[in-house]
Amino acid sequence: MPGTRKLGRTTAHRTAMLRALVTFLFENGKIETTVTRAKEVSSLAEKFITIAKKNDLHSKRQVLAFVTNETVAKKLFDEIAPKYADVNGGYTRITKIGPRRGDAAEMAIIELV
Fold first, then answer.
1. What pLDDT was estimated at residue 1?
2. pLDDT per residue over 42-101, tens digit each?
3. Are 38 and 94 in contact (CB under 8 A)?
4. In 3D, which of 57, 88, 71 has the Cα closest to residue 24?
5. CA-closest candidate to residue 82, choices 41, 105, 52
6. Model confidence, pTM
């Protein structure tokens, strides 16, 4: 199946969930979630870090249209993106941590490298 994973949700619900997860990742530096969600968040986070590295008005508007918190967007431009100025991709790391106790879903920690 090419493209994005549906994650068992409607389009609006999926978009809202991924926006929240990406925002939390930029805010905290790492989050714990399922492996499939982590892979989607990783792809989106890497795209937004690459956009933020340009640091012009258009890139700020693109990031603010997706990230749900303005202070997190500011942190992305001021702290996170400059850290990766000389790196091309590979900004996130996914570490599998085993099954979740309730439903045995494969869990992972995604973090900014």
1. 45
2. 999 999 999 999 999 999 999 999 999 999 999 999 999 999 999 999 999 999 999 999
3. yes
4. 71
5. 52
6. 0.91
In angstroms, the CA 18 to CA 99 distance is 21
Strand intervals (E) in the chain = 30-34, 92-99, 106-112
Determine the pLDDT at residue 37: 96
CB 81 within 8 A of CB 93: no
Residues with Cβ within 8 Å of 102's Cβ and at least 6 positions away in sequence, in order, are none
Domains for the chain: give ranges and CATH numbers: 30-112 (3.90.1030.10)
Q: At a CB cut-off of 8 Å and minimum separation 6, what does 60 contact?
A: 73, 77
pLDDT at 2 (0 to 100): 61
